[in-house]
Amino acid sequence: MTKSRLFSIITIACFVSILCIPIGIVLMLYYTNWKKKLKLILSLSLTAFYAALIAFIFFVRPSINTSGIGLPFGSNSGYTAFDTQSSSPAKSRSSKGSSGKNKKKNSSLSPQNSNAQQAQGKKGNGALYPILFFLFILFLILWQNLRSKGKSNYENPYVDTNKYKLPLTPDAKMPMVHFLHVELESDEKINFATETNQKDNEGNFVITDRRIIILNATQDVEVPLTSIQGISNATSTVLVITAPENKYYIFMPENQMKYAVAVLRWSMDKAKN
Fold first, then answer.
1. Tens of pLDDT along 124-136?
2. Looking at the DSSP assignment, which residues form a beta bridge with residue 194?
3. Which residues contact 258 (CB under 8 A, 6 or more apart)?
4. Exposure on the CB side of residue 258, measured as CA atoms within 13 A
5. Of 9, 11, 38, 270, whose CB neighbour count within 10 A is largest?
6. Rounded distance, CA 214 to CA 205, Å?
7. β-strand 203-208 against 190-196: which pairing, if any?
8. CA distances from 65 to 62, 69, 74, 213 (A)
9. What is the C-alpha separation between 191 and 210, in angstroms, rounded?
């Protein structure tokens, strides 16, 4: 199992667990090879979902009333609703005095008001969590985009390069290459193809099991593999192929260079044997 696939499985598990969605977003942004558009969509949608979940927990869930139940009669005054007028005047006066003290104490404490203020304070603090979380994830997305701005994010439209298991072994199998702009000979197979990006001379570079093909605005070149005398990297984006008649400079995306060189060397060895 490759490292990228392992992190993909962990990322999906984090998303399914719901509670670990933030961890899954970070793993997806930095450790998976998913498409950039898919990462952006999942990051924004899951961030919004998680923020809404936090907001639901703090604002929508029913609260438990712990302040007690108000009774319609003075439960703290020393008498009940069943007291009659036959009670003694002294007892009545004492009950009135105690009820007056209790009223003053209750008015000074005001437990219902204090509970309401505490609840409002908790709700106010709770509102910060989804906002801060959303801003944090948005910062991660922007940072990741700025970090990878200078890197080559080119995706090969003709072949999935992840299927090339480098270094290539003598018995390695080439993946399917969907390139329809050349006419193949009998039993000829395309081993690799990529777009070339030389300014004002864009085109395609193709490697088959018999030849290389360079297609661009200025020339269409075919060189048999057995005629190639050498290959080298002039830079990380320029491949130089030496043939008896000429040298060919092929400009390609940086992340395609290692596959082009590996497949070309492998194809040359196969053609010689």
1. 555 566 666 666 6
2. 205
3. 166
4. 8
5. 11
6. 5
7. antiparallel
8. 10, 9, 21, 78
9. 10
pTM over 0.90: no
Residue with tokens 């209750």: 106
Question: Phi and psi (nearest 5°) for 83?
Answer: -65, 140
- Rounded to 10°, the helix 89-109/111-126 angle is 20
Contact (CB, 8 A) for 99 and 77: yes
Residue pair 189/209 in contact (Cβ under 8 Å)? The answer is yes
Spatial distance between the Cα atoms of 104 and 123, rounded to a whole number of angstroms? 30
In the beta sheet, which residues pair with residue 235? Answer: 238
CA–CA gap between residue 33 and residue 39 (Å, rounded):
9
pLDDT tens, position by position, 29-70: 888 878 778 888 888 888 888 888 887 777 765 555 555 555
Exposure string for 253-266, b = 16+ CB within 10 A, e = fewer = bebbbebbbbbbeb
Residue 161: which of 207, 225, 209 has the closest Cα? Answer: 207
My answer on whether omega of the bond before 22 falls inside 30° of 0, hence cis, is: no
